[in-house]
Amino acid sequence: MTDLTCRTANVFTQACGLQTGDRLALILPRVPEWWLVSVGCIRTGVIYMPGTTQMKAKDILYRLQVSEAKAIVTTDTLAPEVDSVAPECPSLKTKLLVSDHSREGWLDFRSLIKSASPDHICIKSKTLDPMAIFFTSGTTGFPKMAKHSHGFALRSYFPACRKLLQLKTSDVFWCLSDTGWILATLGCLLEPWTSGSTVFAHHLPQFDPKVIIETLFKYPITQCLAAPSVYRMILQHNFTSLRFPTLEHCLTGGEALLPEEQEQWNRQTGVLLHQAYGQSETGIGCGTLRGMKIKPGSMGKAIPPFDIQIIDDKGNIQPPNTEGNIGIRIKPTRPIGLFMYYENNPEKTAEVECGDFYNTGDKATIDEEGYFWFLGRSDDVINASGYRIGPAEVENALAEHPAVAESAVVSSPDPVRGEVVKAFIVLNPAFSCRDQDELIKELQQHVKSVTAPYKYPRKVEFVSELPKTITGKIKRSELRKKEFGQK
Ligand SMILES: Nc1ncnc2c1ncn2[C@@H]1O[C@H](COP(=O)(O)OP(=O)(O)OP(=O)(O)O)[C@@H](O)[C@H]1O
Question: What span is annotated as the signal peptide, if there is one (predicted)?
């Protein structure tokens, strides 16, 4: 890795003429070059911007333009999409292709690193020098550019952070996160790197639960990190045995995990599933550390150096069991590992500052033991007849009914009540022939029976799919806007 990443650094500074502070878009699947490019950038101070390979031309265009990227690294699959938008990106000077074939107008990354010198002197980066830009998922609008410093990498060395996974040199760690997501930089690169553990990588072009299960049986993987949907798919697969021979520890985060899924995973695999919470802005903010008591449905406790509190809209700390915003203290000192600011967006950067805190825009409560309980994004919380309802609570209740494959709960206008709870539901195929009115009544009754009755969805609509971001997160804001007749 030292040899190859030094060569990569030389390719960037010499063959590509990139300088410290230039931006490079990194859009690669799970191939070894993803690691080389990331570390090559860290060595040279080139700011890298990971992006998912699921992007289409317009997504790539948006990212290249707003970031004024000077270079891009990608594969054959996305090169034509890049070429189709490159004329509209005047800053883009270098296109690097990771492939066994050549392509006109592109530099061949693999042959360049073969011929590059392995001698390279790393820049002397300071903790607060910029390292990477992570685009947010765009769940609530256009993706924002969360800029991180080298302190983000440093945070993985902090003893308190290493308690999350407690990786050892003997561990074989498999992080299934999309390479475009901040979790991949943490789970595929920084965490195992700082612990000296083995990284397991699988190309996995599609999330086929059968392949994931076979892989966990075949290879000596001891720890696994993946989005809740991955564990969900495995559980829904009805495989005869999920007793993986070497798996000891599992972590998930990035979206809500249902408490019953957490329990079901434990029952079927014999391994505990720990939950973490984070954002492109924060990396992992809180989590259930290895060995800590798991409270199903909770996102665990704040991980130092972050001081996380539940705050009101003015930044006042709220007592336990009171709904509020998840805030991370930034005054008097901004903690290492938290994003620096939104690039080119001082208004948005100022908007998320709330008193002494960075307001994550997520609603939650904290209990007496310091465990956080996610309610939903601030914009998604429903205010029905004076009751504040988090979509996650209703979606969790619906998920317990066998008819529900997936649901999204949003606010909907009502002439009498102002706002009511509306559920968009994707049915499991076995229930698609059922009388719809009858099924709606049954589902409403079910929600009333498993959670506080005022939360039940007064409106229900069955849909074939839910609107999602390219990383698979439900765009509740899109559904809500449709309900209120907005664009
Ligand atoms: N454990 C978790 N449980 C529930 N939600 C989670 C969890 N972890 C993360 N999230 C959600 O994911 C969000 C972070 O996702 P990300 O940084 O990818 O961008 P986004 O907020 O989805 O997109 P955008 O900011 O562009 O709308 C959090 O703010 C939170 O809403």
Answer: none
Centre of ligand 1 from the C-alpha of residue 255, in Å:
6
Going from the C-alpha of 77 to that of each of 89, 118, 201, 204, 205, the distances in angstroms are 19, 29, 20, 15, 12
Q: Compute the 3-state secondary structure of the chain and give helix, strand, coil in percent, each to the nearest 5.
A: 30, 25, 45
Delineate the domains of the chain, giving CATH numbers in brackets. Answer: 1-124 (3.40.50.980), 149-377 (3.40.50.12780), 382-485 (3.30.300.30)
Minimum-distance ligand 1 atom for the alpha carbon of 252: 1
Query: Among the atoms of ligand 1, which is closest to the Cα of residue 144?
Result: 26
Cα 149 to chain centroid distance, Å, stands at 18
pLDDT, tens digit, 9 for 90 and up, residues 90-138: 999 999 999 999 999 999 999 999 999 999 999 999 999 999 999 998 8
Q: Residue 136 Cα, ligand 1 centroid: separation in angstroms?
A: 8
Single pTM value for the model: 0.90
Closest CA to 439 of 457, 419, 415: 457
Upstream peptide bond of 332 is cis (omega within 30 degrees of 0): yes
